Amino acid sequence: MSGKIIKGDIDILYHITEYKFLTVKQLVALSQRSTQVIRRRVRTLVDEGFIASYERGLGRGAGRRENIIVATEKCLKQLGDEGLISDHATYVTDNTRESIFLDHDLLVNWFLIHLVQINRKEPRLKIRHLTTSSHSLKGGSAEQPLLMERFAVDGSPDETITMIPDGVFVITDEEPEKSLLFFLEVDMGTETLQSTKQTAGDVRQKIINYQNLFRENHYKRYEKIFNAHFSGFRLLFLVNTLVRMKALSDLVQQMPPSDFIWVTDQEQMFSNGLSAEIWTRGGRTDRKTESILGTKLAFECKVPY
Q: Percentage of the chain with pLDDT > 90?
């Protein structure tokens, strides 16, 4: 490795590869280093050919522009030589620059960064997460996402459901040794909530798919992956606006059993953190919002950046 690369750069390279792409602010939040230090290291890593940086208009503020930082083949080779990533790396970094889901994927990343913050503030809560970008599962296929779910409806091989969650994670309270399984869906308001025909892009059908996932016990495969026992799971919808949150909550309430579905919007996440009482359970907007950790463990946990 070049003499200009320091030990902490391996962490930066791993974060970029694990999250598919990041902004400087996201790297600052993950690494807990200053903005000045991160910008300096990013410039060095770009010069050394380990990462590439592209300017794109994005973010929560209108007109704001940020650089999207992605891994290069040189980075993937280095991390592979270090034993930090699997062969799956070729899948998750392909065509990142041209991705039409950039804002969606960046919001997924912010969600995961807020998860990390929960553990930093409350160490007894262990967080383990997987996304389609994750390299944690060795031997992952380079041809399809790690989290792809494919199963027959009601046991019929003639009707198969395929779905890819935005993320799957586990929160373990290490004192009573209790683990909760979560699926994540980030909703940018671009998908039809419900249509006359059931389609893959229909949010109503997406909810039905998760209901089938529970009923058929397909979520049980994560017991082996996370080495934990699950008696069910929670589906979290993170939406981009309050208007969309209200519309999606109404849909959820109309589709029992839906008590396992929790909804919040990005502004509440950024303002209070994922562990705060910001979640609408089962679409019941007429009731007090709750924490996914329960009443006793609820706390505000904003990400500093």
A: 64
